[in-house]
Structure formats: C-alpha cells, structure tokens
Design goal:
- The protein is 32% helix and 23% strand.
- The chain contains 13 helices and 23 strands.
- About 1% of the residues have low confidence.
- 53% of the residues are buried.
- The strands form 6 sheets. Strands 5-14-15-18-13-21-19-20 form an 8-stranded mixed sheet. A 5-stranded parallel sheet has the order 7-2-1-11-23.
- The longest helix is centred in the last third of the chain and has 20 residues.
- It starts with a strand and ends with a helix.
- The chain folds into 2 domains: 238 residues, FAD/NAD(P)-binding domain (3-Layer(bba) Sandwich), CATH 3.50.50.60; 186 residues, no CATH class.
- Bound molecules: flavin-adenine dinucleotide.
- Flavin-adenine dinucleotide binds next to α1, β3, β17 and α13.
Length: 469
C-alpha cells in the first residue's frame, strides 16, 4: 500500500465527516486527511437571526454552513430507511454493500458519539400505525413508516463535537474551519484565497446545498458532465402542535405522507416535520431567501409544529434547468416579500386575498418566525403549484384534521434545490477525471443526514479500493 497519501475533502458535513471516518478506519495513519470547511468550527457555530441585518451579515450562512454541515441546526432526525433521502439501496447495490448494515453502522456511530438512545419505531406502536395506514389508504395517501432517531437541535452540536474529537484524535485527520475552497482542478489542487494551492492524491468534494451552485460552476469550468435533478418546491406549513401530537408522539416523529394531487397528477409530500418547533429563514445567494424548520430548544418547545409541503417537478427540453427554474420562483417570492419570506394564512390563500399584519396578529396560529412579510403567495408561485398545495392540504386534512384550517400558516419560498448530479461511476468517482470523488447533497447524491453519510462512505470505499489495489 502507498504511504502518506494525501486526501483533501471539501465540506465538513455529514458526507465529509463519515468519509473521513471510513478512510481513517481502513487506512489508519497511512493517509493524511484534510477537511476544509467554509463555515466556523462547531464551537463557534451559532445563528444570531436577531434581525434581518444580522442575518444578512452571515456569509457563509450559519444554518447551512460550518463543521457538522447543514444538519447541525436541524432537529437532527436520522431517517434510518433505505429509501429516504435518496435511493440508498440502489447506491449500495452498485458496490455490493448491504444498505441496512451501512445504515446501522451510521446510526451506531452517532450513538457512540452521544446521540440519544431513543429510537422512534412506528412498528412498536402497531395499532396506531395500522389505524393511520387505514386512514391514509382510504383517501389515496401513502404513509411511509420509518425508524427514526431524534438527535434534537440541542444534542446535535455535542454529537458533532464528539465526532470531530474522535476523528482528530484517532486518525491523521485535520478539520480546518473558516476556509473556503475557491476552486479545484484536474491535477487535484484545491485553490484558496490569494491563489494559494494545495495538491492532493485524492479529492472528495462534498459541499452540501450551500455549495451546490459553486460545485455546478466548477464542473462546468472543468468540463465535467452534470445532470439536472427534479426540483422540490412548495411551502412550509405551520399548525398548532396539538394537531400533529398523536402522529408525531405515537407513530412517527417525522411522518412522511406522499400524495398525488388530483388536477395535475403531481407528487407532493410532507418533509422535515418539526413538532413543537420553529420556522427559520435561510439566506441564499443574490438576496434569495427561503424558509426551513428546526427545533432549537433555547426557547423551549413552541406551541406549533411545522413541515415542508413539497411538490416534485421534473423539466424536459427546452428548459431542463430545474435549478434556474426554482431559483427564479424563489427570487420572485423574495422580491415580493422585500427579501423576507412571504407569510399567508391558508384561508387568505384559498380566497385569493393578501394577508395583512393585522390579520396575522389576531390569527389563532401565531408564527414562530418573526422576520416575514404578510403577502400573497399566489402572486409569486405558478397557478399549478398553488393548486397542488391547496388540493394536497385538503386531502391531508382527512388524515390530520385541522391542517386545512383557514388559520394554518403558509410560508414561501420553501424549496429544496436539487444539486446537479455529477457524472460518476459506482464509487462516486468522476467518470472524466480519475481520483476526484463526489458525495452528499451538493453533488446530487442525497437529501438527508444519513443519506449524505452513506454517499460519503461509498466514495471513501472507492478511494480505499484504489489505494489498496
Ligand atoms: C434547517 C435544516 C433542517 C434539516 N433537518 C434535517 C433532518 O432533521 N434530518 C435530515 O436527515 N436532514 C435534515 N436536513 C438536511 C441535512 O442537513 C442535509 O441533507 C445534510 O447535512 C447533507 O450533508 P452534506 O454533507 O451533503 O452537506 P452539508 O451538511 O450541507 O455540509 C456541506 C458543508 O460543506 C461546506 N462547503 C460548501 N462549499 C464549500 C467550499 N467551497 N469550501 C469549503 N467548504 C464548503 C458547507 O459550509 C457545509 O458545511 C436539514 C437541513 C437544514 C438546513
């Protein structure tokens, strides 16, 4: 085996950290691994979000960026399922890995680093699960039962800190925060400020959603093929937590409902359910804002629960560019909101009225996000998507009574831009340049903490295979 090979990883999110662990575990100190992270160290990660001004000052955005990746500021739900966050089964099958075993290993690593021991397993509560499935089946909704571990926003930073300590003390791993990689090239150089370069034997590029546009640009410049993936666009829905209590506490912490809408036959789903959580604002490039949800517990549990309600949209010629399409809708929404998310009651959206601040103030459901503009989402979103949202919520109400109330709060834009998928072989190595690997959400291989970790492990296994051969 070669000695002292250098491996450079871009991004210290779930994909990057799990790749580093896999490399360290299998190659020990025979490789030198450097993880470059544009955002701050785990100790320095905090999200002020006290005002729009302060929020706009965070570049990179503290929610999306920093050691631990986007997951650190999430409610930290580990979806322990081979079809959630991507088709993990297909990814693993291509390299003859047992997907369930890999998912268990990822879960165990989180537990070994302090993840809470409680797992929500819907099959433990058989009767409630059967009743929910019966209700769903009666109205053409598919419910996906998933075993989930809840890290919780409070624990996640501690778990990440423990992972960082473990990697740095057991292997030749150096995690370098506040260091943005400006470019990479085919000679496997990483390029930093002031044109400083470092050359590696292998590169693993795992920049997450925050870095996905950067990655797409880099691939274009280097002539690496990429493909558009479907766009997930919709709204974030906020309701009194009591409405979701039974399902979230007795069946599944982050319940996944899949619906086909009647008029357009579109696929719409619930995603990232934050029971007793908070809606948060995200900042993207070019003054584009977005919304997300989490469960920061500093203020305790909230009286509301929120979830993303997302339509999946594929585009065909002449416009296949789902990233640009999603961005144009998000930009239009951001402009209409004066660079704040739009907030509307469902009643107003249904009636075609703009929501006003006075109405929001007396609405039975109070927003957990302060930094919003009351508005009319129908001014920003295509008719098709508004129809999908209204029809989808009307249907979901048959399973979760109350979600279709006039007082339900709707925030926009909520979008999960899919990264352009990089053209890779089964080990996620570029088909065009040897020894450059890709993983995680930013390269189009995952949409979740566990899924990103799976892709990081597969890429690491590819590097290990090459080194050992
Ligand atoms: C608010 C929120 C809530 C979420 N909740 C959940 C949840 O409960 N469960 C779940 O499974 N998923 C959740 N997700 C999604 C989950 O966080 C991501 O799917 C996961 O973190 C992806 O891992 P990754 O390693 O691919 O990317 P990331 O975790 O995004 O990490 C990539 C890192 O790369 C860094 N980076 C990017 N470009 C560069 C560059 N040029 N140079 C150096 N560094 C760079 C970024 O700063 C970032 O820290 C949530 C996301 C958010 C934002």
């Amino acid at each position: 085996m070669s000695k002292n090979l250098k491996i450079g990883i871009v991004g210290a999110g779930s994909a990057g950290l799990f790749a580093a662990n896999e490399l360290g575990k299998n190659l020990g100190n025979k490789v030198e691994i450097k993880l470059f992270e544009a955002g701050p160290s785990i100790e320095n990660r905090n999200c002020p979000q006290k005002s729009e001004y302060e929020c706009a000052q965070c570049d990179p955005c503290r929610i999306m960026s920093g050691v631990g990746g986007a997951g650190v500021w999430s409610s930290g739900i580990l979806n322990l399922h081979k079809k959630i966050g991507g088709d993990l089964e297909a990814l693993c099958n291509k390299v003859n890995l047992d997907v369930n075993q890999i998912i268990n290993e990822i879960d165990s690593f989180f537990v070994a680093n302090g993840a809470p021991n409680n797992v929500f397993d819907p099959y433990n509560n058989g009767e409630e699960l059967i009743e929910l499935k019966r209700k769903c089946a009666a109205v053409d909704i598919r419910f996906i039962p998933i075993k989930q571990r809840l890290l919780g926003s409070k624990n996640t930073p501690k778990v990440i800190k423990s992972i960082v300590n473990y990697l740095e003390s057991n292997f030749d791993v150096e995690i370098i925060p506040d260091t943005k990689v400006l470019a990479f090239d085919k000679q496997k150089n990483l390029i930093f400020k002031q044109n400083r370069k470092q050359q590696f034997d292998f590169l693993l590029i795992a920049p997450g959603r925050w870095g996905m546009l950067w990655l797409a640009q880099q691939c274009d410049q280097l002539g690496l093929n990429t493909f558009y993936e479907p766009l997930d666009i919709g709204v974030r829905v906020e309701v009194p937590s009591i409405i979701l209590e039974n399902i979230c506490e007795n069946v599944q912490r982050d319940p996944k409902f899949h619906i086909i809408t009647p008029t357009y036959n579109d696929f719409i789903r619930t995603f990232c359910v934050n029971h007793e959580g908070y809606v948060v604002k995200e900042n993207y490039e070019e003054h584009i804002v977005g919304v997300n949800g989490h469960q920061i517990s500093i203020n305790g549990e909230s009286e509301t629960s929120n979830f993303a309600f997302l339509i999946r949209q594929t585009l065909t010629a002449p416009l296949e560019d789902t990233t640009e399409y999603g961005r144009s809708i998000a930009k239009q929404t951001s402009i209409l909101g004066g660079y704040k998310p739009l907030l509307q009651t469902l009643g107003d959206l249904r009636k075609g009225h703009r929501s006003r601040q006075s109405l929001i103030e007396r609405n039975p459901v109070q927003p957990t996000l302060n930094d919003y503009t009351p508005g009319d989402i129908a001014m920003a979103y295509p008719y098709r998507f508004v129809t999908d949202i209204l029809e989808g919520l009307a249907n979901l109400d048959k399973v979760i009574p109350g979600v279709n109330n006039n007082s339900t709060l709707i925030y926009a834009p909520e979008f999960k831009r899919s990264a352009k998928k990089v053209d890779v072989n089964e080990y996620l190595e570029s088909r065009q340049v040897q020894n450059i690997f890709f993983a995680g959400d930013g390269a189009g291989f995952s949409r979740g903490i566990v899924a990103a970790a799976v892709s990081g492990i597969i890429a690491a296994k590819g590097i290990i295979k090459k080194i050992k051969n």
